[in-house]
Amino acid sequence: MRSLLLCLLTGLLLFGTVIPAPAADIRSGVVVSTAGAGQYTYIEVDEQGQTVWLAANHLELEPGDRIEFAGGVPMTGFHSKELDKTFENLLMVTKIRLVPPAQEAGTGAMPGDDLHRGLLPEQSPPAAEAGTGELIRKEGEISIADLFERRAELAGQMVTVRGRVVKVSANILGRTWLTLTDDTGAAPDNVLRVTTSDTAVIGQVLSVRGTVKTDVDLGSGYRYKLLVDEAELGN
């Protein structure tokens, strides 16, 4: 009982007024905008014509994405120091997911593996748009398929990979996250996540050089079989 009172008091001090959470019914909406700040991503959602603001652990979302969420703790008068913004109403959610385009919102099973604390399940990237430049590997560049196949051998080493950018997520954990493809390998080992301090655009063909990391667990459900970390981008 003492621990429960302490948790409630901490919530009041940190977040403003805590309102008892409603039953965890499945809700859905379309992402209007996002803002990353501190440990949270703030998400503006259009829920059947009504604007709803959510806060969750770091998520990679883009305007137009459809999401489902459940439960959460409503806050009133919550002020984000990082954004210098006060939210009249904000829902702190731990169960949220991206709805695949082929699935109707509200029909998926929410509990269990589909919705985790701040976790968006791995999504297949969209088909690569017409890129700038041909995807022809140069000497010393490894394919994505070979990288996954040799990941145990290459863990901790520097590698160079050429691929086409199919997704860009800026300001995630202080870095830009890229998703690359090169038409090698089989799903899910046919896309490569790359972190960098540089910038890129969707469709761009790049040579990326960074450190191979395997079995990466960033917490909050973000787990990666393999990624190339702190990469430098080239042509």
Based on the model shown, name its key terms.
235 residues; mainly beta; OB fold (Dihydrolipoamide Acetyltransferase, E2P); nine-stranded mixed beta sheet; 47% strand; disordered N terminus
Structure description:
This protein has 235 residues and is mainly beta. Helix content is 10%, strand content 47%. The chain is built from 3 helices and 14 strands. It has helices spanning 2-15, 144-149, 151-154, and strands spanning 17-18, 27-37, 40-47, 50-57, 66-70, 73-80, 85-92, 95-98, 116-117, 158-172, 175-181, 192-196, 205-219, 222-234. The chain has a 9-stranded mixed β-sheet with strand order 1-6-7-4-3-2-5-8-9, covered by helices on one side. The protein is elongated, with a radius of gyration of 20 Å. Mean pLDDT is 76; it is low at 1-24 and 103-132.
In short, what is this structure?
By secondary structure, the chain is mainly β. It contains three helices and 14 strands.
> What is the count of helical runs?
3
Structure summary, number of beta strands: 14
Which strand order spans the largest sheet, edge to edge or round the barrel? Answer: 1-6-7-4-3-2-5-8-9
* N-to-C order of helices and strands: HEEEEEEEEEHHEEEEE
Radius of gyration: 20 Å
User: Mind telling me the CATH class of the largest domain?
Assistant: Mainly Beta
CATH topology of the largest domain: OB fold (Dihydrolipoamide Acetyltransferase, E2P)
Average pLDDT metric: 76
Provide the CATH architecture of the largest domain: Beta Barrel
Number of domains: 2
- Tell me what portion of residues adopts beta-strand conformation: over 45%
The major pleated sheet works out as: 9 strands, mixed
Distance between the termini: 60 Å
Low-confidence spans: 1-24, 103-132
- Could you estimate the helical fraction of the residues in percent? 10-25%
Shape: elongated
CATH H-level name of the largest domain... which superfamily? Answer: Nucleic acid-binding proteins
Class per helix and strand makeup:
mainly beta
